[in-house]
Amino acid sequence: MAKQPIITVKNLVKNYGDFAAVKGISFEVYEGEIFGLLGPNGAGKTTTLEVIETLREKTSGEITVDGFNIETDKNSIKQRIGVQLQAAGYYPNLNLSELIDLFSGLYGIDKTPMEMLEKVALTDKAKAKYKDLSGGQKQRFSIATTLINNPRIIFLDEPTTGLDPQARRNLWDLIREIRDQGTTVVITTHYMDEAEVLCDRVAFVDGGHIIGIDTPDHFIDQLVASGFERKKEVKLANLEDVFINLTGKEWREG
Ligand code: ATP
């Protein structure tokens, strides 16, 4: 994989009044990778992402996204990224097809709703309203909306929270496909199994600092090399494997 940085963050600081949420962090995201920001609640992950997404002002530091400086080129950055909206961003009375038309119009981009819904396996829900979708369908739809402007990078904040095991695995496949088609993906998650199988590299954020950044494999190998051992012998399968084995791999929500 080419190790060309597409996002560069240097000494980012973000204060909310007297409270320092992000305390001088630096990292790079490489073009074409799935990059995970991991860490406890309140660590500063969402704040960091929102500054990079141009949704929040930084207190200090330097950020470059796809070659554009966040101070001088906010609009160029906005055109090159896709950000998942929170549920409240979707007009409740419009169906999926109408919502895609609306977003395409806002971006000034000519995309047919079916072309976008096809990417996330939702063509059969074109006439359904967002509020009537299942959790997994809502997540897939919101990922489709991030792709409308052919972004270079998409940002996904906890995209699999609350999903069943099939929906979660299918969403991982979708995120990998998006990466394989050339879009860089930045993701936050609290599920370490997810980060381990999905992310090419991860950064651990704690108390507003980055305390480690590497591939999941390297992190695990280093921990093992340091003498760490799990207390309990690990079984060859876990309860999630049982779940998938009993209920199948296919999407469950029609
Ligand atoms: P989580 O895993 O819970 O989503 P996070 O790592 O994304 O957490 P942030 O949402 O970035 O963390 O929050 C970092 C810190 O900044 C928290 O202590 C939070 O209370 C504080 N914070 C976030 N937004 C604001 C705000 N608008 N005003 C004041 N403080 C805020």
TrEMBL record:
Entry GO terms, CC: plasma membrane
Keyword Translocase (UniProt): yes
GO molecular function: ATP binding; ATP hydrolysis activity
Top-level taxonomic group: Bacteria
Keywords tagged on the record: ATP-binding, Cell membrane, Membrane, Nodulation, Nucleotide-binding, Translocase, Transport
Family the UniProt entry places it in: Belongs to the ABC transporter superfamily.
UniProt-recorded name of the protein: ABC-2 type transport system ATP-binding protein
Organism: Mucilaginibacter pineti
